[in-house]
Each structure stands twice: as C-alpha cells, then as structure tokens.
TrEMBL record:
Coiled coil location: none
Pfam families assigned: HTH_3
Protein name in UniProt: Helix-turn-helix transcriptional regulator
PROSITE patterns xref list: HTH_CROC1
SUPFAM superfamilies: lambda repressor-like DNA-binding domains
Domain HTH cro/C1-type: 6-60
CDD domains documented for this protein: HTH_XRE
Length: 116
C-alpha cells in the first residue's frame, strides 16, 4: 500500500526520491519500492526519514496490516524511536467502541437523574 503521508510530506519539503535514498544510503529504486509499500520501511528508517523531513514519525507512519496507535509512554510495545506502536485487532477495537458507547449512554442517564 502506497505511503501517501510520506510521499506528501516529502513533496512538501521539496525533496526528491533520489535525495531520500541518498539520506538512507540506498539506491532510488529501493526507496521507491518503500514508498509504494512493496518493501517494509524499518523502524530505524522511519526515524531517519522523519528527521530529514523535520516531522514527527507519527505524522508520516503508515501501515496497511492493522490499526496502529502511536503513544509516547513507557509501556511495552514495538519500539520506534521515542514512541511505541501498538497493533490492535479490529474485533477488539470494535468491542471497545461498543463498550464506550454503553458507558456514554449510562453517563447520559445519570446526568438526567441528577437534574431531577
């Protein structure tokens, strides 16, 4: 899956794929395949790219495999520089959304009771 956030950020900065490739010490065809999503961008490469583009990693990071959240904390997870990235399966995410909706409804009912 094409890394649109990365591509847009690179273009806004006015950098070519060749310049990005040189910064990452690779040839332009390898960098191009990373932007197209054909080759995985490793965590150290995300850090180097973010540094060159002068943005936070979470502004450009994309992954098509699952839902990802970037937290700045001390929890355990996949280490990505000063951030941690957690993959949350869709079924768990949906379960949490339903639970949040239930809690919001209960809060609404309790507020109504307080008004009486």
């Amino acid at each position: 899956m094409e890394k649109t956030k990365l591509i847009e950020s690179r273009k806004r900065k006015g950098l070519s794929q060749q310049q990005m490739a040189e910064h990452l010490c690779m040839d332009v065809s390898n960098y191009n395949r990373r932007e197209k999503g054909q080759i995985k961008i490793h965590t150290n490469e995300w850090e180097k790219i973010a540094s060159l583009l002068e943005v936070a990693v979470e502004e450009i990071y994309e992954n098509e495999d699952a839902n990802f959240f970037v937290f700045r904390d001390n929890s355990k997870g996949t280490y990505l520089g000063t951030n941690h990235i957690y993959s949350i399966p869709d079924h768990l995410l949906e379960s949490q959304r339903k639970y949040i909706a239930k809690l919001e409804e209960e809060i609404k009912e309790l507020k109504e009771k307080l008004k009486l």
